[in-house]
Specification:
About 40% of the residues lie in helices and about 25% in strands. By secondary structure, the chain is an alpha/beta fold.
Length: about 230
């Protein structure tokens, strides 16, 4: 599970970010000062992303960025700050940040950027293999038994979400929130149609319907298929 550290002295903003990020299945850590941030990073060496406010009680976080980068070159850093001039944004990026979001912000934009950054920094995890199925997250590509499977972007994103979290059952509402960012015009029926289309292309056994709950990826589907073939 990816780890995200929120460094923000405003508790209300931290709570908003936590509420939305928890929908992304990430482990969340919090810090209200640079000192607390250093403490978390010293204990949790494998933090994936830092969401970093610049104006903190014990200093300007821009001065801390090169030090964080020196300790972990792979960590993703997204600045979230009220400093909104071009010069301040450029300084933040040149100091080591990967992205810059100005306040006030849309929490859904933050989660979208976190998701995108995780994909970039987790290249080693971009390929998932389940028997004859290969899912390439970065390239929106699915191969099954050596052949490319043509999925729409939303079909792929649903499959990728379920496969990446194969132990979890997703409700239709959760899928809408993650794939369509909670678009109120997307109904449960839209999800059902997309699931049906995915099954028509890769086989019905890969996605289980959990009655009265939602959908779950079946990572053992190929084993089930093979056993069924042998019994025929």
């Amino acid at each position: 599970m990816p780890k995200v550290l929120i460094v923000e002295d405003d508790e209300d903003i931290r709570d908003i970010l936590k509420t939305y990020l928890q929908l992304e299945d990430v482990e969340i850590f919090e810090a209200a000062t640079l000192s607390q941030m250093r403490n978390v990073l010293s204990k949790e060496s494998n933090v994936d992303i830092i969401l970093l406010d610049l104006m903190l009680p014990d200093g300007d976080a821009v001065d801390e960025l090169p030090k964080v980068r020196a300790l972990n070159k792979e960590i993703g850093i997204i600045i979230i700050s009220a400093k909104n001039t071009d010069g301040e944004k450029i300084l933040g990026i040149e100091s080591g940040a990967d992205d810059y979001i100005t306040k006030p912000f849309n929490p859904r934009e933050v989660t979208a950027r976190v998701r995108a950054l995780l994909k970039r920094i987790k290249k080693s995890e971009s390929k998932m293999v389940f028997g004859p199925m290969e899912i390439y997250s970065n390239n929106y590509l699915v191969r099954y038994k050596g052949k490319n499977i043509e999925l729409t972007s939303k079909e792929f994103e649903i499959l990728d979400l379920l496969a990446r979290n194969s132990g979890k059952v997703y409700t239709r509402e959760e899928i809408i929130d993650k794939i369509w960012f909670g678009d109120e015009f997307i109904t449960d029926r839209v999800i059902d149609v997309h699931i049906s289309m995915i099954r028509s292309k890769i086989g019905k056994n890969w996605i289980k319907t959990i009655r009265n709950v939602g959908y779950k990826f079946n990572k053992d589907a190929y084993t089930v298929e093979n056993n069924g073939d042998k019994q025929k």
